[in-house]
Amino acid sequence: MSIQGSSAERATSAEAHAIGPDAAAGLAATLKAIADPLRLRMLSAIATSPTGETTAGELATLTAVSQPTVSHHLKVLRDVGLLTSDRRGTWVWYRVAPAYRGAVTTLLDRFAPAAVEVHAGGAPTGAWHGEVAGLSNVDPALDRVAASLAERFTGTPERECFRVVRESYTALTRRGGSAAHLVPLTEHFARQRIIDAERAQATGPERTPQVLFVCVANAGRSQLAAALMQHYAGDRVVVRSAGSAPASDVHAAVRGILGELGDTAAADVVDDVTRFYPKPLTDDAVRAADVVVTMGCGDACPVLPGKRYEDWIVGDPALASPAGVAAIRDELDGRVRGLLAALLPAEDALTTGGTR
After folding, report:
1. How is the beta sheet containing 238-243 ordered, strand by strand?
2. Domain ranges in the chain?
3. Which fold would CATH assign to domain 135-204?
4. CA pair distance 171, 248, nearest whole angstrom
5. Which candidate, 81, 111, 107, places its Cα nearest to that of 95?
6. pTM for the full model?
7. Is the pLDDT of residue 66 over 60?
8. CA 121 from chain center: how many Å?
9. What is the 3-state secondary structure (H, E, C) of the chain?
10. Topology of domain 208-356, per CATH?
């Protein structure tokens, strides 16, 4: 084959895999519009507003620039189609355009935290694959975990325990991150899944209410909400958290708050290794829950009959300033207490204002 022919083939292959020039031009214009720190902050404030909309006056509190400058930035975002607006009285209200809601959620919940971590000097997750390759003798360890769970949960067939353990291990490896504690995490996650599966099949008239908190990465909002619920409720409520696309680790800002709670039962504690870790969303977790609280994960969570669903629009602590993280924590605290008061009998709800 000639060199010219080889080059032509490479060019054809590149063209087949690259986005088209018109699409690239349109995408570049949109990315250019949001490639400004203040516009990104405005976009995140609008997207996570409890009502899904806000005014230029409210957004002006994010910066010391003049109101006309704020309006200019909003116009840039509106001109590329990211925002829509309407006037009510003397105020103009801005919201994310319906066609962009999913994309903005992905930007703020997945791309932005990863970019922030890299720029902050976080370790890349590329080393994960080499570490997994080093776990050449993982099969016996997983077999021991499965056998131990089969002995403990006699209502679950042994072959099912082995399936759940293997499936849990695979799901956790896909998150990336360090493989150092992968087997203990697998044991904890598999045990939780078996408990949820048995609970979902139980038909007893009295059972402890179970709440499942779900966000995209299970590294911020859902972890914090679960920890707060466990902190206030203790064993009066079974608490779970999960992510539709779990990250490799809990966000540093959230990990600090979880530690400040000082509650050894917070966030699915088992030991120091598995106390806080992102985990995938499973159907069994949804089936076992009485209440499912979603935070930014869209339609990823299955909707099953007989469940109570709530969608909490809350900012992402991974992208927030220290003051913003504190505000998110306070907002979740109030929402958790309100949900807890609705779940527990009146005499128990009186105790939810403080630690147990």
Report:
1. 238-243, 210-215, 291-295, 308-311
2. 19-116, 135-204, 208-356
3. Helicase, Ruva Protein; domain 3 (1.10.8)
4. 11
5. 81
6. 0.69
7. yes
8. 21
9. CCHHHHHHHHHHHHHHHCCCHHHHHHHHHHHHHHCCHHHHHHHHHHHCCCCCEEEHHHHHHHCCCCHHHHHHHHHHHHHCCCEEEEEECCEEEEEECHHHHHHHHHHHHHHHHHHHHHHCCCCCHHHHHHHHHHCCCHHHHHHHHHHHHHHHCCCCCHHHHHHHHHHHHHHHHCCCCCCCCHHHHHHHHHHHHHHHHHHHHCCCCCCCCEEEEEECCCCCHHHHHHHHHHHHHHHHCEEEEEECCCCCCCCHHHHHHHHHHCCCCCCCCCCCCCCCCCCECCHHHHHHCCEEEEECCHHHCCCCCCCEEEECCCCCHHHCCHHHHHHHHHHHHHHHHHHHHHHCCHHHHCCCCCCC
10. Rossmann fold (3.40.50)
Task: Give residue 33's identity as a one-letter amino acid code.
Answer: A
List pLDDT tens digits, range 102-158: 788 778 877 777 777 666 665 444 333 333 433 557 888 899 999 999 999 999 999
Pick the CATH number of 19-116 from 3.30.70.100, 1.10.10.10, 3.40.50.300, 3.40.50.1980: 1.10.10.10
Token pair belonging to 76: 């840039």
- The residue whose two tokens read 């109030």 is 334
Amino acid at 26: G
Q: Are 253 and 317 within 8 A, CB to CB?
A: yes
Which pair of tokens denotes residue 356? 């147990």
